Each structure stands twice: as structure tokens, then as C-alpha cells.
Amino acid sequence: MAQQLELIAGCYEQIVFGYRVQTGEKKWTSDADFSHHAHTASLSAVAVNDRYIATGSKDETIQLYDIKKRVEHGSLLHHDGTISCLEFYGKTHLLSGGEDGLICVWSTKKWECLKSFRAHKGHVTSLSVHPSGKIALSVGTDKTLRTWNLIDGRSAFIKNIKQNAHIVMWSPTGERYVVVVNEKMDIYNLETATVTGTISNKKRISSIRFITNTIVVVAGDEETVRLYDTDSLKCLCEFKAHENRVKAIYSITVGETLVLVTASSDGYIKMWKLDLEKIQDTPALLGEVNTSARLTCLGVWQASPVESSQQVEAEAACSQAQPSREETQQERKDHTTEEDSIKLVRTKKVEFAEGKFATKKRKAEETKKKKKLKSE
């Protein structure tokens, strides 16, 4: 059975899109699955794990969706400013960073904020969790690179990088990490915390993605995508991916196929087949979809290999028939403390219908809640 894939993209028009991908031997097709007016301002970040989709926006909220049950799950209200970055760590945690300088660590079990700490004096522009889950890196507009101990939420190391970096990312094994400042990308060694090399792109870098421990894909404010070797610092391949600048990239492995997904300001999402044995060759275009929107962020949801479409449909039907254990416990509570209200604003769960998530009074409730929190 083919693995289920869903392309998730956010845009300036405040909408999050979902496209169900049908895989084939040579060509992949994408069918519109849903579109949801998720926020009251443009989307700035999206993150996915095997169950949830999280979207961040300039409206200062994080919206959650249970993609398996096909329902809107709720809103996280803790940041005071644009949500600049989101990242899941496995099935258990979500990390968020914002223009308020905060990094929040959320539990995906009860969606409570386990830790919230002042990460930077300015905005948090990017964060990345080490594969071990014990430490994280962050960069901000205070011109620092910070290492965080996620066990106690304390800063373990601060490095002055003299410029405002806007991207930081660990390699898959966590042996190295990269820090991006405008068009330059510094490669750091974990053990020495020193720069081992610098790669200069032709344009300002907008998105990066490791596809192996040493090869990183780079997209910038141009139509071209490049693949670099972080050991030799050489460009292995470059190709024209879009007609306009590439805003975001993502990589997935489906079976034995390595796929690069790109999203552009031209509204297109494209899927490319990469061959690591012929890395110098231009990737083959597997498929594309035109969203007709100005895209800002991108994610790809992959169903667990053991799941089937029948299982997903059964879960959706079950969620409509009866509430989950977590919801039942929530309903049995006679009161909600003020502290709990910050953790999760749970919206009405609705059936995924006519290609849209529709939740009445959601925006009104969010506005009311935010005004209450700011006035206190």
C-alpha cells in the first residue's frame, strides 16, 4: 500500500492548504484536500508530526489540527507577537519561538506549556532541536546564537555572532549545525563549537534542509535551488525550480525514494525526485500543484507506514461519534484556572466537510481571550 502524504502550506492570505498526494512510479498527482482560513493575519510558520499540524501567524496564535481525525484541535495563546518558528520533537513536544523573545515547550499530550523562557533580548528568528531532544539551538535579533538545556530550560552556551542570523539547523545526526546570516551559511562542529567552513549563496537564503548528514539543500530569494556539500563546501548541483523566488523547502523519504518539496511565491508547490548516486544531475520533477496564493511556509505530513486509509477514516468516524478520553476529562472539569486558559483554547471539534475546517465563533473567542489576557 502506498504511503499517505499530505502537502501542507501557509500563505499571506491567512489560509492553510492541504493537498493529498497520489504517488506513482514516474508522476505524482496532488488533489485539493482542504483549505482553511486559519488565522487573522498571514501565516509565518508550519510544523507537522505524524498526527498534528501546527501553524503560526502574525496574529500571535498557534492553531492546531488533528490530521488523523480531520478536525481542528484548538489554539495555543502564550506569545505576544508574531510566531516566527515552530518545530515538533517526535510525538511528544512542540517548540515555538516568537517576536516576544520567548521559546515555549509544549506537551502534545495535554497541550500545556511545560516551559517558557526568555531566549533572546530581541526576536527569536529560528530554533532547532537536537536529535537527542536534550538541547536546542536558537538565533535572534540580538546577534547571538544560544544553546539551551531543554531539561531545565536554562542557557548552556551563548555565542556572539555579530550579525542577526535568521536560520539555525542541526544535521540529522546532530554532529554539526549550520547558522545562516543573509546569503552566508556557517557550518559548526558540535564538539568544538567552532566554524569549520562557510558557504556563500548567490542570494539571501530563505530556507535550508539537510538531506544527508553532509548534504544540505539551499533555497534563496531566487528561482534556483542548490545542493551543497558541507565537507567540501562545494555546490554539487543547482537547478531552476520555480519562476519566482523559492520561499520554503522540505524533504521526505517515501520507500526508497528521496523527495524534495519546494514552495514558491509563484504559488506552486513542486515535488522533485533526488538520486544521491547521481547528485550532480538535475532532479526529476514528480509533480506540481498551483495554489494561486503567495506561499510563505511548507510542511509535509506522512502517515505512519502501518496505517491505512481505512484506519484514518475509522478514526475520523469515531471522533465524531464519541469524544476522546482527554476531551471527556476536560468536559468533566467544573472550572478552568486562569493558568490553564493560557495553555490551550479548545475550539469546537467539527467534521472535516466540503474541503474546509469550519468552526463557529473561533475568531471571536480568540479575540476575547487575548483582550482578557492583555488587560490582566
Helix content: 10-25%
What is the CA-CA span between the terminal residues?
53 Å
* Average residue pLDDT: 85
Largest sheet: 4 strands, antiparallel
Strand order in the largest sheet = 3-2-1-28
User: How many helix segments?
Assistant: 4
The coarse silhouette is: globular
Strand content: over 45%
Quaternary arrangement of the chains shown?
Answer: single chain
**Strand pairing plus helix content: what structural class?**
mainly beta
Number of E-type strands: 28
Radius of gyration: 20 Å
Catalogue the unreliable spans: 308-361
Explained architecture:
- This protein is mainly beta.
- Helices cover 11% and strands 48% of the residues.
- It has 4 helices and 28 strands.
- The protein has helices at 309-321, 325-332, 338-343, 362-375; strands spanning 5-11, 15-22, 29-37, 43-48, 52-57, 62-66, 71-76, 83-89, 93-98, 102-107, 113-118, 124-129, 135-140, 144-149, 154-160, 167-170, 176-181, 184-189, 195-200, 205-210, 215-220, 224-229, 235-240, 246-254, 257-264, 268-274, 284-290, 295-302.
- The model is unreliable at 308-361 (pLDDT under 50).
